[in-house]
Design a protein that fits this description.
By secondary structure, the chain is of the alpha+beta class. Helices cover 36% and strands 29% of the residues. The protein has 2 helices and 8 strands, in the order H-E-E-E-E-E-E-E-E-H. The strands form 2 sheets. Strands 1-2-3-4 form a 4-stranded antiparallel beta sheet, with helices on one face. Strands 5, 6, 7 and 8 form a 4-stranded antiparallel beta sheet that branches. The longest helix has 58 residues.
């Protein structure tokens, strides 16, 4: 003769075991999810920083006129367009790297065009965004940070513009 209460006891034991496994697995799944989100954020941060540094390096390297010592947070470069030489300016404004175009329009290099707070704010390096000593190379440095998670990525490079290297415009004897 079968007893009906035995099936109910088995079902309760199975439910207890499943809930015990779920209690032990959910924290691990939560940490894994957090690590995936943080890893994706660090990847976006690295891509943003490398893009900005590559963009600025290319523009500074290929400037048309020999550069003068930059102001701490700004660098003006020139590009030849047919017979005209157009001036652009790289600068840091409201935690974004921006470029001022020859026609007066401003375009962001990092971040959004809107005036909202940045997901990944940009801050200048310890000696400013641009630094140059004498006729040496131009040193560029900035950091991307995420204060909530305590993540900071620093980007630095030094570059000598071709116009300075070849002393463009200088008369040789």
């Amino acid at each position: 003769m079968k007893r009906k209460g035995f099936l109910l006891l088995e079902a309760l034991m199975a439910l207890l075991l499943i809930s015990g496994l779920a209690i032990s697995v959910f924290p691990l799944a939560g940490r894994l999810s957090g690590a995936l989100i943080l890893g994706g954020f660090k990847g976006r941060m690295g891509e943003t920083g490398l893009f900005a540094m590559d963009f600025m390096t290319e523009k500074v390297r290929n400037t048309e006129k020999p550069s003068i010592s930059p102001v701490n947070e700004r660098f003006t470069y020139s590009v030849r367009n047919g017979e005209d030489v157009l001036s652009y300016r790289l600068y840091l404004d409201q935690q974004k790297l921006k470029v001022l175009l020859y026609n007066g329009h401003v375009e962001p290099i990092t971040g959004e065009e809107t005036g909202s707070t940045e997901e990944i704010p940009v801050i200048a390096g310890k000696d400013g965004l641009f630094r140059r000593q004498g006729k040496g190379p131009l040193h560029m440095s900035f950091s991307l940070l995420r204060p909530v998670e305590g993540i900071r990525s620093d980007f630095e490079t030094s570059i000598l513009p071709y116009a300075d290297f070849y002393e463009k415009g200088k008369v040789y004897e």
